[in-house]
Amino acid sequence: MFRWFETRLDPFATKDVAQPPSGLRAFYWHYLKPIWPMAALLLLVDLVAAVTEVVVMTFLAYLIDMLKLARTPADFLADNATLLVAMGGLVLIGRPLFIIAYELLKSQVISPPFQASVRWQAHRYLLRQSLGFFQNDFAGRVANKLMQTANGLRDTLVLISDAVVFVAVQWIAALALFAAADLRLTLPLLAWFAGYAGILAYFIPRVRTRATEASEARSMLLGRIVDSYTNILTVKLFAHAEREDAYARNALEEQLGKHRAYVRLTTSMIGILNVLNGLLITATTALALWLWTANTVTLGAIVLVTALVLRITQMSGWVMNLVTNIFESIGTVQEGAETISKPQTILDAPAAKTLAVTKGEIRFERIGFNYGSVKGTPGADPKRVIDGLDLTIAAGEKVGLIGRSGAGKSTLVNLLLRFYNLEKGRILVDGQDIAEVTQESLRAQIGMVTQDTSLMHRSVLDNILYGRPEAGLEGAIEAARRAHAHDFILDLEDKDGRKGYAARVGERGVKLSGGQRQRVAIARVLLKDAPILILDEATSALDSEAEAAIQEQLANLMAGKTVIAIAHRLSTISAMDRLIVLDEGRILEQGSHRELLRKGGLYASLWARQSGSFETKQAAE
Fold it and tell me: Is residue 516 exposed (0-12), middle (13-18) or buried (19+ Cβ within 10 Å)?
C-alpha cells in the first residue's frame, strides 16, 4: 500500500534546467507548480478532517442537552439511536480514515518526493553554474543552502496545511458556535483574536528577520568548518589548529548570538500569549456561568464553550510555534534563493550547435579579458589579464605556453574551455566560434591534465572511466597501463576492504600520493582521447623516473592532436613545435627552443636560470 502512495509523484519528472526566479513568491511557485494538484488535495483532506473535529465536539454538547431532557435512558436511546450510530461510525471509521489519508498524502505522497525534487532541480541548475560561481563561495555553504532550502520549502507547505487550514476551520467554527449559544459569548473570543493577531503582527516579522540572520550565520559556520576539514593537511603542516579554532569560534559566536536573539523573541511571544490565554479562559467561563444562571444558555452550551476555549488556548501555543516555524522556513528559503537563483553567467547561445572538430585548429582573434569585466566574474580584480591577443595554433601543432606567474597562461586555457566569457574578440576551433557552440560539446573535444589534480571521492575505476564511461573495465585497465598506474592500483585497499580498481581514493584523491593522483588523471585523459589536449604542469607531481616513463606515453598521446602545454620546468616542453612566451597578457616572443635562445629574450633568461648559462650557450649553438 505504501509503495503505491510513494510513487504518485516522480521527483525527477522535471527535465529542463531553468533558472529559479529571484522573487520569493515566484521561487516558491517554481518548485510547487509540478505538485500543486496533490498539494490542493492535501489541503482539502485537511479541511474535511478539521470539519469532522468540529462536528464531534458539537455533537458532545448536543448529547449533554439530550441526556438532561430525556425522561428515561430508553427514551433517549429511542429518540437518538440513528444519530448515535452515525456519530459512532464517524468517530470509529470516518475520522481515522481522514486522518490516515492526510498523513499518507503528507508523509508518503508529497513530502519525500517534493523535497527530493527541489534538491534535484536546484542541484542540476547549480552544477551548471560558472567556475567563478564556485570559486567565490564555500562549496559546503552552497551544498548546505541547497539542502536547507529543500527542507524549508517542504516544511512551509506541510506547516501551512497543518496550521492555516485546520486551525482556521476550528476557530471559525468556534466563533459560530459561540454566537449560536449566545452572541455575547463571542466578545471575549473576539477580543482574544484581536490580541492574538496583534502578537503575530508584532513578533512574526521580527522572528522572520532573526530566523534569516540565524540561518545565514549557520551556513557561514558550516562553510568555515568544512573549509578547515577540506584543507586539514595545510592546517597540520602549519600547526594552526588553534588558529582554526579561533576561525570557527568567531563564526560559532556569531551564530550563537543570532540564535539567542531569535529565541529571545520566541520566549517573549510565548509568555505574552499565555497571559492572553488566561484572560480568555477566565472571561469566557465567567460570562458563560453568568448567562447560565440567567437561564440564557444551556448546560451543554457551557460545556461546549468551555471545551472550545480550552482547545483554542491549547492550540494557540501550537499555532504560534507553527507560524514561527513557517516564517523560519520562509527565512531559510529566502536566504537559499539568493544563492540558488543567481543567474548563470556562462550560457549556451540560444541556437548553439554541437562543436565538430575535424582538424583541431585553434584561433584566438584579438581577445581581451579581465576578471572584473561584466561578462567575467563580478567583483574580482579588474586588472586586464589578456589584452588584444592574436594567436593561431595549427591543427596537430604542439605549442608550449611560457611566462612568469600571472602572465595569462592558465587564463588563456580557461578561456578556450569557456570557463569565462571574453570581454572582446573571439576564439575559434576549426572555424567555429566557441561562443556559438554548446559548452558540453566544446569540453568533450578537449582533454586536460592539470597541475592541481583533483579526483572524485569514488573508486579508482569510476575516476578513470570519467574520461569515457562506456569504455568499461578493460578500457580503464588499458589506460592505466599506458599511464604507468596499473601496478600501484592493484595494491590499493580502502578502509572498507575494497581493493584495486574498486578502492575508494578519498576526498579529492587524498588517499593517493601526488604522483599517483597525476597518473590516474593522465589515464583518465588517455581514455577520453580528445582531439585537443591541454597539459597544465601535467608531470609536475612525478619523480624523475616516473616522469620519464610518462613523457613517452604523453608523446604517444599527443600524436595527431593539437596540444597546448604549460610548464614552469622548461625542459619538459622545449621539444614542442612552437613556444609562446607571454607577459602581462601579450605575446612577448615565439618560436622554437633554439630560435628563442638565439634571441636572448625572456625565454633565454628563464632557461638560463633553470639550466645554467653554459648549457644555454651550447643549446643556442
Answer: buried
Q: Which residues of 238-259 are buried (b: 16+ CB within 10 A; e: fewer)?
A: eeeeeebeebeeebbebbeebb
Sign of CA dihedral 520, 521, 524, 526: negative
Q: What sign does the dihedral 235-236-242-245 (CA atoms) show?
A: positive
Domain span at residue 441 reads: 362-445+530-620
The pTM (predicted TM-score) of the whole model is: 0.76
Tell me if 404 is assigned to some domain: yes
Q: What is the pLDDT of residues 177-235, one digit of tens each?
A: 788 778 888 899 899 989 988 998 898 888 878 887 887 888 888 888 888 887 887 88
On whether both 547 and 467 belong to a single domain, the answer is no
In Å, how far from its chain's centre is CA 57?
46
Over the stretch 275-307, which tens digit does the pLDDT of each residue have? 999 999 999 888 888 888 888 887 777 877 888
CA distance 147 to 164: 25
Residues 6+ apart with CB under 8 A from 484: 519, 546, 549, 550, 553
Same-domain check for residues 30 and 140: yes
The H-or-E segment that residue 369 falls in is: strand 362-370
**What is the Cα–Cα distance from 57 to 53, expressed in whole angstroms?**
6
Return the SS3 of 389. Answer: strand
- Do residues 113 and 34 touch, judged by C-beta distance below 8 A? no
CA-based nearest residue to 422, from 469, 385, 381: 385
pLDDT (0 to 100) of residue 373: 53
Q: How many domains does the chain have?
A: 3
- Mean pLDDT value across the chain: 85
Nearest-angstrom CA–CA distance, 329 and 558: 54
* Same-domain pairing of 538 and 478: no
Instruction: Give the tens place of pLDDT for each residue, 428-439.
Output: 999 999 999 999
3-state secondary structure of 194: helix
Same domain, 470 and 598: no
> Is residue 57 included in any domain, yes or no?
yes
In a domain, residue 218? The reply is yes
* Chain centroid offset of residue 577 CA: 45
Confidence of residue 319 (pLDDT cuts 50, 70, 90): confident
Asked if residue 241 belongs to a domain, the reply is: yes
User: Where residue 278 sits, what CATH number does that domain have?
Assistant: 1.20.1560.10
